[in-house]
Amino acid sequence: MPIEMQRREEQDRSIAGRFEMRRRLPDPVLDGIVTDICGYRETAPGHFRNVEYASLAVPLVISFAEPFAIGLGKAPGDNDRFASFAAGLFAGPVMIESFGTACCVQINFTPLGARRFFRLPMSELTDSMVVLDDVLGAEGMALREQLGNAPDWTARFDLAEAFVTARLASAAETPLEIAWAYDRIIASGGRTRIASIAERLGWSRKHLAEKFTDATGIGPKTLSRIVRFNRALGLSRQPTAGWADIAADCGYADQAHLVREFRDLAGETPTALVSR
């Protein structure tokens, strides 16, 4: 998931011209709720494979064509086909395959934004893909039909933004304590001690974990691991970075600890991952 994006739609065709992708950074009214909206269409036959590493994006995928094959922490099997769905947080690599005919709109939510939008405990989505009508019912199916009938990506993105904005109008706000705890973990790069957050809130660690899991789908410790991993991955792409220094900077016990975390959250060693 790109961290920085221009506030505009952009189109990217692969070198081989096998797919098109458009992105939109959402309207400012959705700041902190939606990170971006994507349109994806494959334009030539083929077998596409992609691996997404542990992230904090909660996607809502609305498909108009063949389903994707998706495996959590493993290669997808014959029964792992998903068309329109929402996916909760997963602390590991996600393997995605498609076959040259996929077409979809994907709305990427923040964890706290997803809790407000779906109006469900996020633990109901953790480590899974839940089909569209189970998370949004008739509203979701109507949205899919509208998006499918729209004349172009711009119209689809406008519809998607309007749908999210309208649904949020009557959604409950995120509890201030949880929003504060979430922001502390993000701002610290995952290095803040969970015990200190609970202490500042006057909560037990168990109570914090329960509230946090309802809001994000995972506990604060797991969220910290994902935040720290993504920071380390970002630092590794700087030309002068060394793994030992990155491990120390990100708060890992040592380089071996960093390697184990990369294996768990990305399915690869740091060196293999960065060499791609």
From TrEMBL:
It comes from the Bacteria. Keywords: DNA-binding, Transcription, Transcription regulation. It holds the Pfam family HTH_18. Gene3D superfamilies: Homeodomain-like. One of its GO terms (molecular function) is DNA-binding transcription factor activity. Residues 193-276 form the HTH araC/xylS-type domain. InterPro entries: AraC_XylS_family_regulators (IPR050204), Homeodomain-like_sf (IPR009057), HTH_AraC (IPR018060). PANTHER family: BLL1074 PROTEIN, HTH-TYPE TRANSCRIPTIONAL ACTIVATOR RHAS-RELATED. This is Helix-turn-helix transcriptional regulator. It comes from Mesorhizobium huakuii. The lineage of its organism: Bacteria, Pseudomonadati, Pseudomonadota, Alphaproteobacteria, Hyphomicrobiales.
